[in-house]
Write a structure and sequence with these properties.
The chain is α+β, with helices and mostly antiparallel strands and 742 residues long. 39% of the residues lie in helices and 29% in strands.
Length: 742
């Protein structure tokens, strides 16, 4: 079977679309003429030949004509009920006519089309209308229809006449044509060279990128070239891979050298020598059969050339610098690392994978100048050489060494290599380790400044003590500490000013330092002041050695801690007093720590310690328990004990209060104060009896006041009665009986 070309298929589709459109227009014009009385008779072609029907009065011929139409026809009531339809309409609806008559046409319309249908139908009721809609067939196939509505005259049964034309095939043809046009546009405008092959491997279509890459014309290769017969691919062993695409429907990808000089490949108008990345993908029909294949070519010739040049450059570079004791880097035009020798990796503390691709601008280098200031990437030797095109020499850089976790000092040179146009092609960067030289310079600087910074300016006592005779060179702070002048101390050794009880420990520590068993030492000891007082000191010392590790002298720092020692003694005594008061005092004392929830709200507190009086006053031993464990009813207590103590901790202010404790029915006088973060102390004594006495006293006072009030009321009433009696006597002409004093 000969397969039609795509252009022939497109021409056929266009022709069919035009025929369908012509037939639809003709049918609509015919129906319009019939409705408007412009036709007296019609000719209908049937199985028995052409027949002429008169339309002047006979209904039967008219019905025959309607039945023979290629379009669906139906008469609808105003509520869309179908009261008549022809056989073509029934066929479109894929239902028998008896199931359609009496049904609502709306049931054939999908929900998303009902609004559009309603507009068309309502317009048809008022006159005429037409438009396109879709509906789903019983097989769930989308069909496209053109509807025409015309209002029927009053004397005719029904409200509107509807003519239905199925243009699904035309719609599908248009979509197919659009898809072909779109696909052809994608192929033609692809930046990569594309070939379309038929199921036999014959080339059927190429794009502009293919014409340019392979220097070919359509007429020379379309229908003539077959990839399965390409000797260039066959000689390189790719024929089985290509065959598998057509035979098994597999995908293939390979790189090939395409050389047309021998005339074995595609017919090009010039000799081609290309390195190609080739991809073949099959196109399958619904049954899994290969109908076409698409081939994509990417030209990697320039990439291969650059790779070869790089390999040659690497080889030359390695042969030249691989074993020299100088770090060497080859960096690209953007300062990217291209190559390195082993010494460079060693000095930089990196492996090859970590180094390649990095640039001079990478912040991980952590580079500084000699004065310790940052050394920005753009000012490094290589970027400077790239920017200027000139060599950059003798630059000192402090570079962080990630393996040793220290800084290495390098002396760096950068030599640019330029292209013919004057732009930098690459830069050779060389460097040597000068860390030892820098270390020696630093040690010399420290040595020169040591006496000035340590002895003359330090507020801490300093001494340099001879290993041999124990004589000392001291600073002003040490002299003031012991009450001697510098001259006096220079004639003494350390043993003579040390408390006798500390000499044995000092000698042992010094021996460990001299032997190297300890590098440094720190301890507390006592010196004897010139006035005979004891001076406590915190002493730190290190042995200074020569290059052969022989001990030279002790470098010692001395801090006067006499006041601290006295304070410690006072605190110890205070602790003893507090403990005695805590254990034996007449009041209860408890030491607590607040407990918070995840939101930081205080919800409980723990008893760290209590004294015996606490246990006696409360009747419980709460140590290492929480207040809620000891007194479960505390949350029902009207007084917020936890919140009150949390306020003391939060504000740091002490609080004195009297409060009834509901859990044991007792009154307490409490003093709470903040002790440490989240900790507080409460001291208290019981005042239950006093509170009861106060309550009794208040009750008696209330009773007395009541008695007094009742007595006064009685006296007032007696006075009023006497006044009334006197008034009555006086009214009857008699003398008053009572003498009332106001």
């Amino acid at each position: 079977m000969v397969k039609k070309s795509e252009s022939e298929a497109e021409d056929q589709l266009r022709s069919e679309n035009e025929e369908l459109q012509r037939r639809l227009t003709e049918a609509e014009e015919t129906l319009y003429a019939i409705r408007n009385g412009e036709v007296d008779a019609i000719v209908v072609s049937g199985a028995e030949g052409a027949r002429i029907f008169s339309l002047t009065s006979a209904e039967t011929p008219y019905r025959i004509m309607v039945e023979e139409m290629h379009e669906g026809a139906a008469t609808l009531m105003a509520d869309t009920t179908i009261i008549h339809c022809n056989s073509r309409f029934a066929k479109m609806a894929a239902r028998p006519a008896e199931q359609i008559i009496g049904a609502s046409f709306s049931q054939f319309i999908s929900e998303n089309e009902k609004s559009a249908f309603s507009r068309l139908f309502n317009s048809g009721l008022a006159g005429k209308s037409s438009g396109e809609i879709t509906w789903l067939s019983p097989e769930n196939e989308v069909r496209y229809f053109h509807l025409s509505f015309s209002q029927l005259p009053p004397e005719v049964t029904g409200d509107v006449c509807m003519i239905v034309s199925d243009f699904t095939e035309r719609k599908q043809a248009e979509e197919t044509l659009h898809a072909h046009v779109f696909l052809n546009s994608v192929i033609e405008n692809s930046p990569n060279a594309l070939w379309i092959l038929d199921e036999q491997g014959t080339l059927t279509q190429i794009n502009q990128a293919s014409r340019t890459l392979f220097a070919i014309h359509d007429e020379a290769v379309i229908g003539k070239y077959n990839i399965l017969n390409d000797a260039v691919f066959e000689e390189q062993g790719f024929k089985p891979t290509i065959n598998a695409v057509f035979e098994k429907g597999s995908i293939a990808r390979f790189t090939a050298r395409y050389d047309t000089e021998t005339g074995k490949g595609i017919e090009a108008i010039q000799v081609l020598k290309l390195d190609l990345d080739v991809s073949l993908s099959p196109i399958l029909d619904p049954h899994g059969k290969v109908t076409n294949a698409i081939v994509q070519f990417i030209d990697i010739s320039e990439q291969r050339k650059m790779e070869q040049e790089l390999r040659e450059s690497e080889l030359k570079f390695k042969n030249l610098v691989w074993d020299i004791p100088v770090g060497v880097l080859l960096q690209g035009p953007h300062s990217e690392m291209l190559l390195s020798n082993p010494k460079a990796l060693e000095l930089l503390g990196l492996n090859e994978d970590q180094l390649l691709g990095k640039t001079s601008f990478d912040p991980d280098w952590n580079v500084i100048h000699e004065d310790g200031s940052p050394f920005p990437g753009e000012t490094h030797p290589v970027p400077q050489a790239i920017a200027t095109g000139l060599p950059v020499n003798d630059v000192i850089m402090g570079v962080y060494h990630p393996i040793n976790d220290n800084r290495i000092w390098l002396l760096v040179d950068a030599i640019p290599q330029l292209n013919a146009d004057g732009n930098t092609r690459q830069v050779v960067c060389t460097f040597v380790d000068i860390s030892k030289r820098k270390q020696a310079e630093e040690e010399l600087r420290i040595s020169e400044e040591k006496y000035k910074s340590v002895f003359d300016q330090s507020v801490v006592g300093k001494s340099l003590t001879s290993i041999n005779d124990g004589k000392m060179k001291v600073n002003k702070a040490f002299c003031e500490m012991l009450g001697y002048s510098e001259t006096e101390l220079s004639t003494l050794n350390w043993q003579s000013i040390t408390h006798p009880e500390d000499l044995k420990h000092d000698q042992k520590t010094i021996s460990l330092l001299i032997s190297g068993e300890k590098e440094t030492a720190r301890w507390e000891k006592r010196y004897i002041h010139k006035n005979g007082n004891i001076v406590w000191v915190d002493i730190s010392t290190i042995v200074q050695r020569d290059k052969k590790n022989n001990p030279l002298f002790f470098n010692t720092s001395i801090i006067d801690i006499t006041k601290r020692k006295l304070l410690e003694q006072e605190l110890l005594e205070a602790e003893w007093k507090f403990r005695a008061l805590f254990d034996n005092g007449p009041i209860g004392v408890a030491y607590h720590e607040l407990i918070y929830d995840h939101a930081g709200k205080p919800i409980d507190y723990r008893f760290i310690d209590v004294n015996s009086q606490y246990i006696e006053l409360t009747g419980v031993d709460p140590r290492d328990k929480t207040v809620k464990q000891v007194f479960p009813d505390i949350e029902n207590d009207p007084f917020d004990w936890i919140g009150t103590y949390a306020q003391v901790v939060r504000t740091g202010k002490s609080l004195n209060f009297e409060q009834y404790f509901m859990s044991n029915y007792r009154w307490y006088n409490c003093v709470a104060f903040h002790y440490r973060p989240d900790q507080f102390v409460v001291a208290f004594f019981e005042i239950t009896k006093r509170k009861q006495a106060e309550t009794d006293l208040l009750k008696k006072m209330d009773d007395l006041l009541l008695f007094q009030r009742l007595t006064v009321d009685r006296e007032l009433k007696m006075i009023e009665l006497k006044k009334e009696i006197n008034k009555l006597l006086k009214g009857s002409g008699k003398d008053e009986k009572y003498r009332i004093v106001e």
